[in-house]
Design a protein that fits this description.
Length: 467
Amino acid sequence: MANNSSIPSGQLMHYASYLWEATIVQRANFYIVTPAETTFAEMKDVPDFVAESVPFWFALMFLEFLIARCLGRRATRINDSFSSLSAGMLQQMSKVLVMGVETSCYRYIYNNYHVLDLPWDSLWLWWLCVFGYDLGYYFAHRAGHEISFLWAAHQVHHSSESYNLTTALRQSVFQGYFFWVFYIPLALVIPPSIFKAHAQFNLIYQFWIHTELIDNLGPLEWVLNTPSHHRVHHGRNEKCLDKNYAAVFIIWDRLFGTFQAEPKERDVAYGLVYPLDFWDPLVAQVHYYQYLLGKAWNAKGISVKLQLLFRGPGWTPPGEEVVPLPEVQYPVKPFNRSVSLLLSLYAMLHYGLLVPAYMHTVTGKILDTQLLWLSVAYMVFALTSFGMMFDHKWYAPGVEVLRLSLVLLLGALPATSSSTEFFFPGPLNGGGQAVFAASILLWLGLAARHLSGGQPYWQKSSAKKIQ
């Protein structure tokens, strides 16, 4: 007897085709896309794959957290994850303000100096950009580690002592101002629309490789950059330093002598050689510039000053004592500060209220330039305030009360309510105002308790290490 419940092959193919088309953003995160669906004639036609990937990334981060808990691992720390997510927000907002340095410079060079007029819908041109962009990224990334003033920007990405999917979003605000020069050769032949698409695919591919939950991937390890290879890159063990610069294809590291397989004898220790001891995302962006420029300013002679900027981060001027790299102590105990349950819940709530403002900003929904700058300034203020809380600053409650009061004040002004709703879409609507008012009362109560000799808002006043 025939099975009447079976699905006709034609309908099954229709469902498969629909599923393929509907998951282009998810597939793009693994570079599983075809030239036909990702080739565009004009830059304005190229979707914002990065912004569209954000919900998918949050879903994967939540899935990673659940799997890690089921396996008995601690995948995330709220203060570390906050610092990573905040760095990503700062980087994306900076790109909105300057309209994307990388693509703008690339388009200018192509429009004025390209040497070949190639068909934008050529199959071989698509593949040329796949490998050409990845090779450009290899050299840009390598320079970011081997030239001090570039490392000052890139070190932000390496500043986490954890290695999980949130680490992928810990990006530099300043890196894009320098790395674009490594793609100038592509601008001589590849149209900007093709470049813009592959620049996004190359970037978002690197999200999923920031995890400890995926082990060796067999034969793929010979060709592709994988979680195993990239864990080495984030290591501060001496044998891991300046290795595995690849974005998508690990073949460049194998070809240019910078490949290092993941050690099996012990776990990789992540982070900077000299780990950070704070959580403020804004300070994380600029602290190394302060150190490097101060060191160059105090150096004697223009030659030494320039070498401090353009040689590697480990370079020591002649006559100075060479300081050996600090030895990694096992078991590794990452820097941490205590976070009370109340502070954790508060941070998650207000971070969630900040997300609508962020999405309004980075998706181009704020057309007025002054409002755009005001929105970015508010979010920087908010992220800095959260960082102060996690750093146990005594003045953090006062700064946070100021932030909350500012939002309520702007929302109460008739002259600004119609405009500020675009960058305060969550807090100014419905129960958002009540949440902000209640939060002010909460902080005033916590401050009063502390002043009267009670526990501070973070419960413990000293830094501690994870056991």
